[in-house]
């Protein structure tokens, strides 16, 4: 992955030529973000020999009929950070794209200042939580997401963030043995959904996959 001291190099995968042309002109106004590669498909982007891309802006729904989640996975496997930039899509598609490794989701109707800020955040390796992404998690109908209580979610977030179980219990305001009970329930609920979760790393993965925050 290229360093961004010389500015942020962005690639875009979108089959709307007019949008791509406008996006390039728009981003040039920021002074630190440049659209360096534009492609109509993920295949086209991955076949481009240019490197040093800091972030890929990916439209979820492309005319080639490619699977949105598979597109995210392929780009992540090629060591690209991915930000989904699209019109409103079905909640489960947005949530699944995030679970596949996308750094966030933003709709195309944002102004330049907002888009530039989101790009800088994602290119810097951080996750971009936006209202549409939060809404997608709330409405995501996938059956493999367990229903967690407020306390279970709080302990999961605290423990998965790197705290010890004792520190997580103190952070939430419960006894360590109570915190362990909550954590055991979380693991059991994921196991029931066919998603075994044993280690702290597993728990951190579930937090990301399910957009728990």
For this structure, the CATH topology of the largest domain is Rossmann fold
Strand proportion, as a percent range, falls in: 5-15%
Strand order of the largest sheet: 2-1-3-4-5
Helicity, as a percent range: 40-55%
The level-1 CATH class of the largest domain: Alpha Beta
CATH superfamily of the largest domain: Response regulator
CATH architecture of the largest domain: 3-Layer(aba) Sandwich
Element string (H = helix, E = strand):
EHEHEHEHEHHHHHH
Counting helices, strands and paired strands, the structural category is alpha/beta
- The gross shape turns out to be elongated
* Sheet of most strands: 5 strands, parallel
Q: How many helices in DSSP terms?
A: 10
Count of extended strands: 5
Low-confidence residue ranges:
none
Cα distance, first to last residue?
Answer: 28 Å
How many domains?
2
Tell me the radius of gyration. Answer: 19 Å
GO molecular function, one term: DNA binding
Domain Response regulatory: 9-123
InterPro entries: CheY-like_superfamily, Sig_transdc_resp-reg_C-effctor, Sig_transdc_resp-reg_receiver, WalR-like
Modified residues (4-aspartylphosphate): 59
